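User: Can you predict the 3D structure for this chain?
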Amino acid sequence: MSAHPILKNNKNLTMYMLVWLGVMASYQANLSWGIGLELKYALSDNLIFNLFLVGLGLSLWYSAKYISFENHSILKIFLSHIFGGIFISAIWLALGYYIIVSITPVSEKYSSFFLDTLPWRYLIGVLYYFLFTAFYYVIIYYSDYQERAVKESELRNLVTQAELKSLKFQINPHFIFNSLNSMSALTVINPDKARNMILKLADFLRYTLASNERQTTSLSDEIKNIRLYLDIEKIRFEDKFEFNEDIEENCLTVKVPSMILQPLFENAIKHAVYEALDKVTINLTAKIKNNFMEINVQNNFDDNSVKKSGTGIGLNNIKSRMELLYNQKDLFNIVKRDDMFCVTIYIPLNK
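Assistant: Here is the predicted structure, written as structure tokens:
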């Protein structure tokens, strides 16, 4: 059972008591000066009947929690509170009057005043009952709504994390498959290069395994991994490509999705270097611009070469991960113009 909304902290309880002090002060002024009731009767009436209402207002929380909308029909709840309001109001008036009679001799004037105001008192008692009960039902509904919203948010986060992990695990088999094919060929024609490639691949996979549990890493670590990846591909392609990087110093510590760059370079190797007769230049740049870090991977390609088919896993993978992580769809851009292919990733600095 959730905590009592008034009793759960001193601030709420203080506000509750201050409101009742205001009600009691107003009621006392009306009895003493408006009606002209003798002071001892006015004080007794005010303190006893209103203190009962103070306690009643606190206790009705538990009936609202017990008679909940989740476990009872609306008709049952309505009837329960109708009878509850009638019964509790009667008990409140009878017990209050009995206590006043017990502590002080009652004059005929007070008895007449009490009987004259009895219908109004009874109506006020029922009204207070329903006001407090309605207030608590609103609190319960709002608390349940917030709790559901938090749970739904947590569930969405869990689903997002699962999707992100699934996307990340697509990257590694894709690259490993290509590398194993290359090593298989090299073991026959150049065993030394194959051995070197195996060692490089082991270092690359060591980084990959370490990053699988992290959604983000620093750009500097990603670039180190890219250099290692390109070292592996250099063994296969030798001088068919060159790599240039231009990274602003303040970009190196910015957090980026882990393994976000490798599919871009794999795409460049597969669709540009693999098919090219001339040397391919791959450029990596990163700079801060308008609260974003802008990362560009650009390469030239031979537009007349036979295109190598692909599944598009790499680029789609990046696009999906960026949307999931940052909840934006405009953070990934591809431009293909003449003999130049450029991919741009925008990393929000405020997220």
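Residues 108-189 form the longest helix (82 residues). The helical segments are 10-35, 39-66, 74-103, 108-189, 191-211, 219-237, 262-273, 313-326.
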